[in-house]
Amino acid sequence: MNWDGWTLNRVLVVFIGAAFLLIWVQVFLFHYRQNFHHKSMYVPVVVAPLLALSAVGLAFYKAPWLATVYTAVSVAGILSGLVGAYYHYKGVGVRVGGFEFRNFLIGPPVTLPIIFAALSVLGLFAIYW
Predict the structure, then answer these.
(1) What is d(CA 52, CA 73) in angstroms, rounded to the nearest whole number?
(2) d(C-alpha 119, C-alpha 59), whole Å
(3) Fewer beta carbons below 10 Å: N end or C end of the chain?
(4) pTM, whole model, 2 decimals?
């Protein structure tokens, strides 16, 4: 493998793929712990590995159809993250005491879906900017 010819955006896409693989593990564990009590909890568990595979695939095999797949999955990642942020924030509010600081510590992680969406946006910047 020749790393000398790799541009920054190509390395960034590989990094984003690895990050989504790690995020997928964490999202799966959190949602599994909650027994997937809401059907929307399956969305990031499915989208994250698709993002990881398409990102790494795009970095090693630059094909227009793969860029289209990666773009579509990234848009799904952005939407998934935004909807997840809403549900996580709502989940903190339904705990006993509502939006108290301790509920943000022990409730669903409000920032994780935002990070999911932000990495999806960063991936789109990497291939289109």
Answers:
(1) 10
(2) 16
(3) N
(4) 0.90
